[in-house]
Amino acid sequence: MKASLVTIEPNGHSCSDCAVREFAVCSSLDAVELRELEHLGRRVHFTAGQIVFSEEDITTSFYNVLDGVMRLYKLLSDGRRQIVGFALPGDFLGMNISGRHNFSADAIGAVRVCQFAKTPFGRFIEDRPHLLRRINELAIRELSQARDHMVLLGRRSADEKVAAFLLGWRERLLSLGMASDTVPLPMSRQDIADYLGLTIETVSRTFTKLERLGVIEIIQGGIGLLDTARAEALAAA
Amino acid sequence: MKASLVTIEPNGHSCSDCAVREFAVCSSLDAVELRELEHLGRRVHFTAGQIVFSEEDITTSFYNVLDGVMRLYKLLSDGRRQIVGFALPGDFLGMNISGRHNFSADAIGAVRVCQFAKTPFGRFIEDRPHLLRRINELAIRELSQARDHMVLLGRRSADEKVAAFLLGWRERLLSLGMASDTVPLPMSRQDIADYLGLTIETVSRTFTKLERLGVIEIIQGGIGLLDTARAEALAAA
DNA sequence: CGCCAAAATTGATCTGTGTCAACTGTCTTC
DNA sequence: GAAGACAGTTGACACAGATCAATTTTGGCG
């Protein structure tokens, strides 16, 4: 939640050797289209805590996460917060129907995004149904994840929530080649609590409990997963 | 959860005078396309409790709800249930990426749907980007609702959950012209509990409490909304 | 390095909601 | 219209997780 002084990458960039090329929206585009897209997007840097966009803001851009992790959250008027997701490289943000964002997004640590102004990007999609199909695919995948998360929030115990979160987070990082049995957790305990519908104390206690049980090992900036099978059993998957 | 004996409407039907024509996926189609679509869909009836599809089933169809209310839910292995939504006329079901449904759906009372076989409907979409855009729009709207529901499940008290549910349900029915200050509740208390991440007892007690407070009046098959402002305050909207 | 602020952990206690159980009301069927 | 089954309500009590309050650990910075 710092003042908003973002950095725009000065020189050109090329989509063709972009790290997320293969699994982001862009995966649906051919070399020629990619070249065109290059002119529409600009790379923008955010530092830890910077807000990328806020709920209820008029949507002006789409964002393609290139690097880093973002917190996606909604606030109640009295300050209660629910984190509705974490965005990782390859995630596409900014879709909506009301013309306004329906959640806020800020950076956990340094984040690099590819930002597209809404109107030109909208035009670009216009006559490229395969891109639209790709965007739809991403939306449907998110919807499926959202429903899984509803089950977690509504019907799981604190132990199950934490175990399921650690396994799910690890799985996501694995698919990006960013984890092994040591799982980095760039977000704070408070973030985890707000994602799981718990308090920070309960999250902390549950971590300690899982460590006592020999399921995980708490390390700097993350955990070591010692007993995956046991963790899966606890998650009631 | 009855045996599966669905009824298929015998004679032809016409999309042009369909009740959901204006707000379902079909709203994106012109008269000619509508005529074509007519041949792809068949109307199917379900009676109370009949399962329309189950989680993990291979997707074979898309469904357009014409009439009635459906329960959309996910089960945990030990029987805990989370209702992820209620489908009403105009809702479009069957989108997924894995080729399998990611939740189950059954009928609350009598339901009529327009069913489209996956492959031909997929082909129909193929060269109709405006239909794809419409489907995307519906997916994004659902995603937004899903996120709102996450906030409710993760961060709201029982009172807030129930109040927010009643107001939200009323709002949806209003937009379909199916409610006024008396709000029909076709689903059971257990369904409401499983939707809100509560127990049936807590839901029942909260209804009674709201009635004592003069906010609602409990009637057969629904409630009367007596004090909307108060309900909104309780929902912490 | 030493100081400060923030994050995380731990303990003690409280409470909202779940659990268990009894009861009531309503609908169905013969 | 009696009997059974099921849905809903109500009460008493239990407990998972919240709250309140220290304390410890970590990280940033002069």
Automatic annotation (TrEMBL), chains A, B:
Keywords: DNA-binding, Nitrogen fixation, Transcription, Transcription regulation. Residues 25-94 form the Cyclic nucleotide-binding domain. Pfam families: cNMP_binding, Crp. Residues 156-229 form the HTH crp-type domain. GO terms for molecular function: DNA binding; DNA-binding transcription factor activity. The keyword Transcription regulation applies. Signal peptide: none annotated. SUPFAM superfamilies: cAMP-binding domain-like, Winged helix' DNA-binding domain. One of its GO terms (cellular component) is cytosol. The keyword Nuclease does not apply. This is Nitrogen fixation protein FixK. It comes from Bradyrhizobium centrolobii.
